[in-house]
Amino acid sequence: MEDRKQHFSRPTMEKPPSLLNLTIIAVLLGLIAGFGGYLLGQNVLPSTNANYINLSQWTRGGNQAGQPLIDLAQKSAGSIAGVYRPVAAVSSVGGPLFSQDDFLGSAVVVTSDGWLMSTDQVIKNKQVVIALGDKLYEPLDLKRDLFSGAVFVKISANFLSPIDFQLTDEVKTGESLFTGIDSVHSLEDTFYTTVLANAHYVPEKYLSTEKIDYYLQLGEVQPANILAAPFFNLQGNLMGLAYKLDQETLLVPSEYLKQAVKNMLNSTERVKFGLSYVDLDNNSGFTKKGVLVYNPSVSPVTFTLPAGKAGIKAGDLILSVNNNLVSGSQSLTSIIQNYRVGEKIIIKIQRNSQTQDIEVQL
Questions:
Q1: Is 133 left (phi over 0), alpha (psi -120 to 50) or beta?
Q2: Who is most buried in 257, 298, 306, 359, counting CB within 10 A?
Q3: CA 43/CA 63 separation, integer angstroms
Q4: Domain that holds residue 136
Q5: Same domain, yes or no, for 139 and 262?
Q6: Could you tell me if residue 319 is inside a domain?
Q7: What is the pLDDT of residue 94?
Q8: What is the DSSP letter of 280?
Q9: Which residues contact 189 (CB under 8 A, 6 or more apart)?
């Protein structure tokens, strides 16, 4: 008998997938793969870029992996204010409708009885409105710290939540930071994350004891108006306030801001020491520790101020202050600014290859 081979397919009720269905399936698979890659990049792979945090979606979605950061962000939100151009005199945010152009920058609460801190790039006079929580405030008083650029504004409020300050010796390059910036037409803040790119950014070659001698440098940031935005570490401590310097986004270090708060509350002045110097530890071409009293453009010693009166001279190498070694992580200016006017300190210098101690009354 002749073998017969089946040369047709059995009829079926199933239709072959259409081109449209195949396209939809491919798109869905692509979205799933892309989202998986996003999660991998956010949670596993390191990144130096700033990332937008949609706090409300994270909370509603129940993303437990990000819960510690969400808790810190929500805790800090009550201490972050927005600074706006005045639109109208009202008592709540429900009154005037601010535009993005009206937003000047940020401020943070530093005392429970109504003192907030911003910078001179945001607050230049009392003609501003402070938005904190669901209230709007007009400034009652204004104080400035010319050394750091910090500006303090007093509002009629009590029982506020002051921010916590970071300890300087715990600052580390590469650690994660986050900030909150007031959202226009909203009672909530917009949060961003970034990393600390440089824990000791020296702005100039020749420094002064009467000016900030170092800043903290940020990685990439996305906010359009970042001025005076407070950046916190993952312990919730303030690292600094955002400040623009030569198109660079930097942070005024918290140690200088903390000193400014103390001086403001105690009505005291910053120490004026009277030296210009080169930071040897952070300046290429030098390997020695300490700072060299030197400036080719001006006299590096002001003879009417404490350093000059005590006999410190151009060319002296300053090694320590009260046995605190001067180094890249502990600068001369930062050490000096921890003392008050009238106190006495011992400066160890090297002059003509000989070390000696000089007593200085501040």
A1: left
A2: 257
A3: 12
A4: 74-266
A5: yes
A6: yes
A7: 52
A8: G
A9: 55, 73, 77, 80, 180, 181, 182, 183
Residue with tokens 């994270």: 58
Residue 282 lies in a domain: yes
Q: In terms of DSSP bridges, do strands 237-245 and 164-165 run parallel, antiparallel, or are they unpaired?
A: parallel
Q: Are strands 129-132 and 115-119 parallel, antiparallel or unpaired?
A: unpaired
CATH number at residue 291: 2.30.42.10
Distance CA 101, CA 84 (A): 9
**Is residue 280's pLDDT more than 70?**
yes
Mean pLDDT of 269-277: 94
My answer on whether 106 and 217 are in the same domain is yes
Beta bridge partners of 274: none
Q: Sign of the C-alpha dihedral, residues 38, 242, 111, 258?
A: positive
Question: For residue 45, which amino acid is it?
Answer: L
322 with 309: CB under 8 angstroms? no
* 118 neighbors 151 (Cβ within 8 angstroms): yes
d(CA 201, CA 328): 10
